[in-house]
């Protein structure tokens, strides 16, 4: 018995280490090369330890025209997307979880169908519409599109979060004098909060990474991915590493924050 | 506890958003701070009340971050008025101009792009006729072929020559030890290049020739402007000629010594600097970093010649004004500024694109510019030079046309399919595109009245 569990442990940890390396090694290399002198990028064999560090390429990239403004735009767009999609998505998710109405499955499918539209064919009509509405080249336009893209996720995630919260709790609260609204606010919402937070941060990451709509709908008010794709696509390798790291780092930090809540995404919480 | 922390994070984020932006949507949170008194539809920053209106300059050229910064901080500095230089990929570039024209609200003033992009812009009815401006620029010694090209097949100037580039060879000096006996670096033949690659292959055991066959590589230009003209003296008309069959046989033999990683190379300066290849063909702007970073280790040379001559492709970038541009006056002033001889030399010095004016190049250019410049001049002045244009008049089909060329090369060279069969099939694809667009032949093919036809 003891021997078997020892082998099991080794296998378990070896697997975990392999998985972690699989994810972390590329990020480590990107980070390493982002802070290396230019020519180190081309050296072979590549140095795997940070023996010589340089912030030169990183500094150039960060101070280049538009990088900081684009970062700011990305943050604004992502926050706005997060708030808007939660305001619209959470009630829809709650309705899907709690109420049994005719056509419920159709609504569920319909929500998913919005994800089936390829953005590419929408690009010109979308741009034309936004130009006419005066929203073109503003972070709001991008946030609206991102909200449309993120809503299906938010609705389905929040629906499963609310499904996981027993209805009995709300009913019990109501027998003790709560109105349906206060039962929701006092009982369901606090229980759903970790899941909602995870959904919100997931939305943040979706918006942070989206490039297509952002590229076509903005010109002066670029978001970071839209800027990076035009500026770094054809830049030398060392700038691509700098830009890549600059983009990955915030998403990484956010993932570290939501790591604990991530399981709530699917309602399989161990509260 | 956890809940309270989350609420704190939420309210912090919300407060941050509200504090930094004028409220654009009503927020239902009762605890939120009251929104600023007058929500304005356009967010900050408040532009200083600048008298000269900025010119919005959208460009598919000079996209890499360093080039774009040079453009903003050095080249455009002496212009005086503010210019917003915004580089953009070709796809979104055309989409944006189309959308602005359709919506009837144009924001872009000046566009800078390749000659081929301008043909598409003209089809979208997005260009102003620049005859009056051209008249004012007539004292500039512009290369007359470029001025002619700028008319895009009409009799009006729409695209004003801006800068030019071409494709050359970049060579690591380590390769020179293996140069075949009797070969002149400035007058190589394709056969000698194959021999050279073979010598290196035998001596080092490595395949050190390189071509940009990656997804963003420009190998189709190699087929259109270098391989075919050198071996057949033309391109479209001789696509499946007996000379073409011989050419592909020769190129297949050369491929034995090409680094197989070539299918991942987009910009040859990267594998050159990493020394994965020693000899590479590519666009001057995609080689320049090798010369810039290690000028003592690399040399440039004209492309090799084939039985018919030395095919090469001059690349022309143009400037134009978008129809309905909000700042027409500023746009014209900017184009006038960018085509001044001194600006043209600054462009050469800073970003290594060559002038479109017939002016002497001063001796004090940086070393990487001199290395490339010499090879470019030798190539265009070679007695056996065959200049080939980028495909003309294909509009939105240019991408498909390029793909046919790329497919031909990949099927023959990488997949080893039978040459005659591939040429028959791909020539039919080529012809279908030419018939559909009605594109007439362009040099080096002899002029045609109808659509260009494969013989």
Walk me through what this model shows.
The complex is a heterodimer of chains A (271) and B (455). Chain A is mainly alpha-helical. Chain A has 2 domains: 1-64; 65-266, MetI-like fold, CATH 1.10.3720.10. Helix content of chain A is 73%, strand content 0%. Chain A is built from 11 helices and no strands. Chain B has 455 residues and is α/β, with parallel strands linked by helices. Chain B folds into 2 domains: 55-165 and 315-381, Periplasmic binding protein-like II (D-Maltodextrin-Binding Protein, domain 2); 167-313 and 389-437, Periplasmic binding protein-like II (D-Maltodextrin-Binding Protein, domain 2), CATH 3.40.190. Chain B is built from 16 helices and 11 strands. Chain B has helices at residues 2-20, 65-75, 90-103, 115-123, 131-136, 144-149, 190-204, 219-232, 242-255, 269-273, 284-293, 328-338, 341-351, 367-381, 398-414, 419-437; strands at residues 55-59, 83-87, 110-114, 160-165, 167-172, 209-210, 279-283, 298-301, 310-312, 315-321, 385-387. In chain B, the strands form 3 sheets. Chain B has a 5-stranded mixed β-sheet with strand order 2-1-3-10-4. Chain B has a 4-stranded mixed β-sheet with strand order 6-7-5-8. In chain B, helix 2 (65-75) links the parallel strand 1 (55-59) and strand 2. In chain B, helix 8 packs across helix 15 (398-414). Mean pLDDT of chain B is 86; it is low at 16-50.
């Amino acid at each position: 018995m003891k021997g078997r569990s020892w082998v099991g442990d080794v296998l378990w940890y070896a697997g975990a280490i392999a998985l972690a390396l699989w994810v972390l090694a590329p990020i480590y290399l990107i980070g390493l090369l982002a802070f290396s002198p230019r020519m180190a990028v081309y050296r072979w064999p590549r140095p795997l330890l940070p023996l010589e560090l340089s912030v030169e390429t990183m500094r150039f990239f960060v101070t280049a025209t538009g990088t900081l403004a684009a970062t700011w735009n990305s943050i604004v767009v992502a926050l706005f997307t997060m708030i808007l999609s939660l305001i619209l998505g959470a009630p829809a998710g709650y309705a899907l979880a709690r109420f049994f109405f005719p056509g419920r499955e159709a609504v569920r499918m319909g929500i998913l169908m919005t994800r089936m539209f390829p953005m590419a064919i929408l690009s010109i009509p979308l741009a034309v519409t936004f130009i006419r509405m005066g929203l073109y080249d503003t972070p709001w336009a991008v946030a609206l599109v991102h909200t449309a893209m993120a809503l299906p996720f938010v609705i389905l995630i929040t629906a499963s979060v609310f499904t996981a919260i027993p209805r009995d709790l709300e009913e019990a609260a109501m027998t003790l004098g709560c109105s349906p609204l206060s039962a929701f606010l006092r009982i369901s919402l606090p229980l759903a909060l970790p899941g909602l937070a995870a959904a919100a941060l997931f939305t943040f990451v979706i918006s942070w990474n989206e490039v297509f709509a952002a590229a076509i709908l903005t010109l002066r008010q670029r978001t970071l991915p839209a800027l990076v794709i035009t500026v770094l696509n054809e830049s030398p390798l060392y700038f691509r590493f700098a830009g890549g790291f600059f983009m990955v780092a915030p998403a990484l930090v956010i993932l570290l924050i939501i790591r604990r809540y991530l399981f709530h995404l699917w309602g399989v919480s161990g509260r | 506890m956890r809940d309270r922390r989350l609420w704190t994070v939420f309210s912090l984020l919300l407060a941050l958003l509200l504090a930094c932006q004028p409220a654009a949507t009503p927020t239902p949170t009762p605890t939120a701070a009251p929104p600023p008194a007058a929500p304005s539809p356009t967010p900050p920053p408040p532009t200083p009340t600048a008298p000269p209106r900025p010119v919005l300059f959208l460009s598919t050229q000079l996209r890499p971050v360093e080039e774009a910064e040079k453009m903003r901080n050095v080249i455009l500095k002496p212009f005086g008025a503010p210019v917003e230089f915004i580089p953009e990929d070709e796809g979104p570039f055309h989409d944006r101009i189309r959308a602005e024209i359709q919506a009837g609200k144009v924001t872009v003033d000046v566009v800078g792009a390749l000659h081929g992009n301008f043909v598409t812009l003209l089809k979208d009815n997005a260009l102003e006729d620049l005859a009056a401006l051209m008249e004012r620029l007539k004292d500039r010694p512009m290369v007359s072929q470029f001025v002619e090209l700028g008319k895009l097949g009409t009799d009006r100037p729409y695209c004003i020559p801006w800068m030019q580039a071409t494709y050359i060879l970049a060579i690591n000096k380590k390769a020179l030890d293996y140069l075949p006996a009797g070969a002149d670096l400035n007058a190589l033949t394709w056969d000698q290049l194959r021999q050279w690659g073979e010598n290196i292959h035998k001596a080092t055991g490595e395949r050190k020739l390189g071509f940009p066959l990656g997804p963003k590589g420009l190998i189709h230009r190699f087929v259109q402007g270098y391989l075919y003209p050198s071996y057949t003296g033309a391109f479209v008309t001789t696509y499946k000629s007996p000379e073409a069959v011989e050419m592909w046989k020769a190129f297949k033999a050369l491929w034995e010594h090409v680094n197989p990683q070539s299918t991942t190379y987009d910009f040859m300066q990267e594998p050159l600097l990493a020394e994965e290849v020693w000899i590479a063909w590519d666009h001057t702007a995609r080689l320049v970093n090798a010369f810039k970073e290690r000028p003592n280790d690399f040399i440039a040379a004209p492309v090799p010649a084939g039985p018919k001559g030395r095919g090469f492709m001059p690349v022309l970038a143009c400037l134009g004004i978008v129809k309905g541009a909000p700042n027409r006056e500023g746009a014209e002033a900017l184009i006038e500024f960018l085509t001044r001889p001194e600006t043209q030399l600054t462009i050469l010095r800073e970003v290594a694109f060559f002038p479109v004016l017939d002016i002497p190049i001063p001796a004090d250019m940086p070393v990487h510019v001199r290395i490339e410049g010499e090879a470019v001049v030798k190539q265009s002045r070679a007695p056996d030079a065959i200049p080939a244009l980028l495909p003309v008049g294909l509009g939105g089909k240019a991408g498909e046309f390029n793909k046919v060329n790329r497919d031909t090369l990949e099927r023959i060279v990488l997949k080893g399919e039978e040459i005659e069969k591939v040429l028959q099939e791909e020539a039919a694809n080529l012809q279908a595109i030419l018939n559909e667009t009605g594109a007439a032949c362009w040099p080096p093919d002899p002029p045609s009245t109808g659509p260009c036809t494969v013989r």
